[in-house]
Write a structure and sequence with these properties.
The chain is 32% helix and 33% strand. The strands form three sheets. The protein has a six-stranded mixed beta sheet with strand order 4-3-7-8-9-10, with helices on both faces. Strand 5 and strand 6 form a beta hairpin. The chain is globular, with a radius of gyration of 16 Å. The chain starts with a helix and ends with a helix. It binds guanosine-5',3'-tetraphosphate. Guanosine-5',3'-tetraphosphate (G4P) binds next to strand 2, strand 7 and helix 5.
Length: 197
């Protein structure tokens, strides 16, 4: 997505060869107009797939996932990073470990919101090692739902997330794919919306 790549080039900062800071429009301050365009781009690609729910993990995935759900006309379900007392026993959980942050959390879903009839689109901001998306897939399997695809804003293609997910038969649709980065230089691969319809 040219617009997203341009914003990454103009406002993003490679803080190392592995970490991209995009706090001014994705992770801290959020650009709602960009998120709307991102939502419409995901929706255009996944529209004919019979999607019944969009899911994401709190917190940075919520803005683009909400706009995608709105464009598809389906609910958004937010997977929590810790259990809530109000869920009682009515929840599924799986541990997700973040290599980037060196932390683990209990990804949690109340059983009421995803069923075996659901075709689910997973949306997230970054795809690095694929641990967050794999955790989502584990929870969706516990609900016997169908994973319809994974949409991400920024894929760090030099990390193994895409291979891990496509190797399990899942489609990854990334709007910006970073081949490599270093201070003041970010190199892209062609994004999926530029190479597919
Ligand atoms: P993975 O799920 O693909 O394996 O990624 P990983 O565990 O390595 O990353 C975990 C967290 O770090 C995620 O946020 C992810 O969005 C974020 N992250 C990974 N690489 C980058 C990067 O290059 N830049 C930025 N800005 N974030 C990155 P999170 O912990 O879920 O945080 P949030 O959603 O609450 O913001």
């Amino acid at each position: 997505m040219k617009l997203l790549e341009e914003r990454i080039l103009s406002e993003g900062k490679a803080v190392s060869e592995e970490i991209l800071k995009v706090d001014s429009f994705i992770n801290h301050q959020v650009d709602p107009v960009l998120m709307q365009q991102i939502g419409e781009t995901f929706a255009a690609h996944f529209r004919e797939r019979g999607i019944t729910k969009v899911v994401t993990i709190e917190s940075s995935g919520i803005a683009p996932a909400q706009m995608t759900a709105l464009a598809l006309g389906v609910p958004l379900v937010i997977f929590k990073k810790q259990p809530s007392k109000v869920f009682g026993d009515n929840m599924d959980q799986t541990i997700v470990t973040s290599f980037t942050k060196g932390t683990s959390y209990e990804l949690t879903l109340a059983k009421d919101f995803i069923s075996q009839d659901d075709h689910v689109l997973i949306i997230d901001d970054f795809l690095a090692n694929g641990e967050a998306a794999t955790g989502c897939i584990r929870l969706l399997r516990l609900s016997h739902a169908t994973v319809a695809g994974i949409g991400v804003l920024v894929e760090k293609s030099f990390q193994p997330g895409r291979q891990k997910l496509t190797g399990q038969g899942h489609e990854v649709y990334a709007l910006a794919r970073i081949k490599a980065m270093e201070k003041d230089h970010i190199e892209f691969l062609p994004a999926d919306d530029e190479t597919q319809s």
